[in-house]
Design goal:
single chain; mainly beta; 4-stranded antiparallel beta sheet; globular
């Protein structure tokens, strides 16, 4: 399944140079947001859950 979520920016749920994505067994996505120097946790509906960095 291919899905588009988020937009360009700095707020949670927004990305600036997202360049790596990993999915865990529960279907949650860890997105490396290199331009904002953080990792964001996104649920399978595209909603941001947490951010580190």
């Amino acid at each position: 399944m291919i899905k588009r979520f988020g937009s360009h920016g700095q707020a949670i749920g927004e990305f600036n140079l997202a360049n790596d994505i990993v999915m865990n067994r529960q279907g949650l996505l860890y997105v490396l947001d290199a331009g904002n120097f953080r990792v964001q946790l996104i649920d399978n509906s595209g909603n941001p859950l947490h951010s580190w960095g």
